[in-house]
Amino acid sequence: MKNPARIRTGLVAALWMFMGTHVMGQGSLTPPGAPGETMHTLEEVYERTDPRTPISSLPYTINESGSYYVVSNLHSTTHGIVIETSGVSVDLMGFSLTGDGTSSYPDNDYGIYVDGSTNAVIDRVVIKGGSISGFYYGLYCEYMNNSRIEQMVVSGNNSSGVYLNGRHGQCDGNTIADCTISGNDSYGVVLSGGSGQCDGNTIADCTISGNVSVGVYLDQCDGNTIADCTISGNDSYGVYLDQCDGNTIRENTISKNTTKGIRLYHADGNRVEANNVWGTTGGEYGIQTTTGTSNFILKNTCVGNGTNYELDPDDTFGPVVEAAGELGSADGAWHPWANFSR
Predict the structure, then answer these.
(1) Residues 156-199: pLDDT tens digits?
(2) 8, 290, 297, 329: which has the highest count of C-beta atoms within 10 A?
(3) CA-CA distance, 334 to 299, in Å (whole number)?
(4) Average of per-residue pLDDT values in the chain
(5) Which residues lie across from 195 on neighbouring strands?
(6) Where are the domains of the chain?
(7) How many angstroms separate the Cα of 113 from the Cα of each of 95, 142, 171, 177?
(8) CB 287 within 8 A of CB 308
């Protein structure tokens, strides 16, 4: 008969041999001391979690591709941010860039300056999420293609709010979206082609108001689109196309501009569709086309302008319906391309 005491002793010894290395290797369970400081600034958090470069002072020049962000409201007595290369994203993070309000031609200061050249066209730039004021131009972009300006407030600059300059090269395929461009001392938005080209750009879902000259001015530009914008209270034209072909002006609300709502001059093959143009304050035209051919004027509504429509006979346009009350089938009221005048 086996001895129970010897069996128990043997089991205990085997258990200790099995556990020994695990039990003996744990070390002290006493904390080494009080925990250290764990709070970090917002800038430190971004630096740890996002491989973006902070912009903390102006002027600031970007000559390497990558993502950049503004860390506070910033002021400059010269240019604000200058972009000299492609593949750049600048997020203003809700902050503002302000100039000293003294810049004038020829000493022009730009809030954001995309500085391309003939042999080094800049593309794939994104500028978003803040405000610019107090410069000569809010944003001035030349030799820039396939880029985007979005969610910006551009106001109170000495000349134009946003200027895309393709006069000596190209400034094509860009988008200005969801921006507020107001109270600038000249134009709201300018697209300029001249001897170069400024083609295939889009201005969409923007509010462009209270500028001292034209709300949106296209000069020798082709194939651009202005859509779903509110363009109001500018001290000249709402939208002015000068020697521009094949552009689209669609579904905008254009109101209380001083001279004309929409004007096409020496412009061919443009499409003006489904805009609501009303209340020009200078008693002039809602929609006017002169010295152009083959423009399409369809489904617009003009109300309370001095003259609602003055259309070149070489254009194509839906019937102009002036009837009040319930619309019947007479006078083109049911025509799918009818323009309405009240």
Answers:
(1) 999 999 999 999 889 999 999 999 999 999 999 999 998 899 99
(2) 297
(3) 11
(4) 89
(5) none
(6) 63-235
(7) 17, 8, 13, 18
(8) yes
Cα angle 281-204-195, degrees, rounded to a multiple of 5 = 85
d(CA 9, CA 102): 96
Task: Answer for the pair 188, 214: CB distance below 8 angstroms, yes or no.
Answer: yes
Question: What topology is assigned to 63-235 in CATH?
Answer: Pectate Lyase C-like (2.160.20)
Q: How far apart are CA 85 and CA 64, in angstroms?
A: 6
- Token pair 């800038």 is at which residue? 43
DSSP for 209-250 reads E--SS-SEEEES--S-EEES-EEE--SS-SEEEES--S-EEE
Q: What is the pTM of this model?
A: 0.85
> How far apart are alpha carbons 236 and 256 in whole angstroms?
10
CA dihedral sign, ordered 99, 106, 180, 185:
positive
